[in-house]
């Protein structure tokens, strides 16, 4: 793994020195996004001109060495003459984490008041996103702004079934999209991120978004969220494309649970956070899901790994999973109570294991497909708003059963230590 003391190359540092200082920096991490990068930059430059013409703004494109025309298109696109643009290839390990590290460093060197980052594949970004993200920091004293989107009920299945639930139950903040990808934060938060010793670790490679959100909460920065409206991006069918993301995000979540053990043990209940931005709701474009494939992957997983699952989960939890594997498609359901128990037991097992942890996450990936299949069956005739109510009920269930996690967290670790 590459080890650099900065993600900024010499020519980028020189360009930053020439600019000297700014009020606003908007970072756009990208890699092979030639079809969307122009639209994203255009909306950023228009939004900054529309809402913050009196501020000195820098648009910072952090490219991962694209092999298409992403950088060329970013360079050629004209922005407002009073704005600055930097098109940079970051230095270090490949991935969004290093791209964002370069953004944080640029933000600190330019001494900006506020920094925002937006994904480079967002087709639904509008010029007003700049105000929705930046205003809470510039005018309301918040230090970290998380996004809220109007998403189709089958978009964001990892967030809906895992990330939102654990973030809310563990850290006590109802942050709806902890891995949304489009954030804003103050100079103090950017400096904090830059100073952390994570940039050569798998946390930065696999889960930079959830690390940012969790770090903002556990270090008591003032956190809010802003509704950005409908999210249209390269949405993926969970039955075919989201296995690697499940493994990476779950692995990072469990590592963060260990790192912040002393914080979340003290948390009781959860509180809503102030929300700004758009009001109302628009039904998003549908995301297609292959229900047959989801169920088949879950059942095949049980067939392949069931013997191993017997050692991972408690007898009662394993038996419930076994019963689920015997259900027909039309009756298929993975009850939320079983899902909560399984995910908490998995987290405790991860905590007790010191080796082969990533393999552990791989072994239980089929459970995710089973839970998503159950959600699809349950919400088939619902619109996205109605499905959102189910997501909230699930999150409450995680919160209410938090004591179960507390009871097995140390117990499993102590049992494993005795065996060793």
List the topology elements.
Elements: H1 10-19, E1 24-30, H2 37-51, E2 57-63, H3 70-76, E3 84-89, H4 96-109, E4 114-117, H5 129-140, E5 144-150, H6 157-171, E6 183-186, H7 187-195, H8 202-206, H9 208-218, E7 223-230, H10 243-259, H11 261-264, E8 275-277, H12 291-312, H13 315-325, H14 336-352, H15 357-363, H16 365-379, H17 384-400, H18 402-419
Parallel strand pairs: 1-2, 1-4, 2-3, 5-7, 7-8
Antiparallel strand pairs: 4-6, 5-6
Helix pairs in contact: 4-7, 6-10, 6-17, 12-13, 12-16, 14-18
Please provide a written account of the structure.
There is one protein chain. The protein has 420 residues and is an alpha/beta fold. The protein has an 8-stranded mixed beta sheet with strand order 3-2-1-4-6-5-7-8, sandwiched between helices. α6 packs parallel to α10, α6 (157-171) runs parallel beside α17 and α14 packs parallel to α18. The protein is built from 18 helices and 8 strands.
């Amino acid at each position: 793994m590459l080890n650099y003391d900065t993600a900024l190359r010499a020519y980028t540092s020189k360009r930053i020195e020439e600019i000297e200082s700014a009020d606003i920096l908007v970072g756009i991490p990208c890699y092979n996004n030639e079809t969307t990068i122009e639209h994203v930059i255009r909306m950023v430059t228009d939004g900054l001109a529309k809402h913050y013409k009196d501020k000195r703004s820098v648009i910072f494109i952090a490219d991962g060495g694209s092999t298409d025309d992403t950088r060329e298109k970013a360079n050629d696109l004209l922005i407002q003459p009073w704005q600055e643009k930097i098109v940079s290839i970051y230095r270090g390990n490949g991935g969004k984490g290093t791209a964002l590290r370069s953004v944080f460093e640029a933000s600190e060197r330019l001494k900006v008041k506020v920094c925002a980052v937006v994904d480079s594949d967002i087709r639904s970004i509008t010029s007003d996103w700049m105000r929705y993200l930046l205003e809470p920091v510039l005018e309301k004293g918040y230090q970290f702004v998380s996004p809220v989107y109007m998403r189709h009920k089958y978009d964001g299945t990892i967030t809906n079934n895992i990330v939102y639930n654990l973030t809310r139950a563990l850290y006590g903040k109802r942050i709806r999209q902890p891995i949304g990808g489009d954030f804003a934060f103050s100079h103090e938060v950017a400096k904090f991120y830059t100073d952390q010793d994570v940039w050569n670790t798998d946390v930065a490679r696999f889960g930079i978004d959830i690390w940012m959100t969790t770090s903002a909460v556990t270090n008591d920065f003032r956190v809010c969220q802003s509704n950005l409206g409908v999210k249209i991006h390269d949405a993926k069918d969970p039955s075919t494309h989201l296995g690697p993301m499940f493994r990476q995000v779950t692995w990072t979540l469990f590592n963060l649970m260990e790192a912040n053990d002393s914080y979340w043990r003290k948390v009781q209940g959860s509180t809503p956070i102030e929300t700004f931005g758009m009001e109302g709701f628009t039904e998003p474009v549908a995301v297609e899901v292959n229900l047959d494939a989801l169920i088949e992957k879950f059942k095949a997983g049980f067939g392949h790994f069931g013997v191993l699952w017997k050692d991972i989960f408690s007898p009662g939890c394993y038996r419930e999973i076994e019963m689920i594997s015997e259900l027909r498609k039309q009756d298929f359901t993975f009850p939320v109570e079983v899902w909560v128990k399984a995910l908490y037991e998995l987290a405790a097992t991860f905590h007790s294991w010191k080796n082969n942890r990533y393999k552990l996450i791989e072994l239980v990936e089929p459970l995710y497909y089973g839970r998503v299949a159950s959600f699809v069956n349950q919400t088939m005739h619902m619109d996205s708003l109605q499905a959102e109510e189910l997501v909230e009920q699930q999150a409450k269930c995680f919160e209410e059963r938090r004591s179960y996690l507390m009871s097995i967290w140390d117990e499993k670790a102590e049992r494993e230590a005795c065996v060793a």
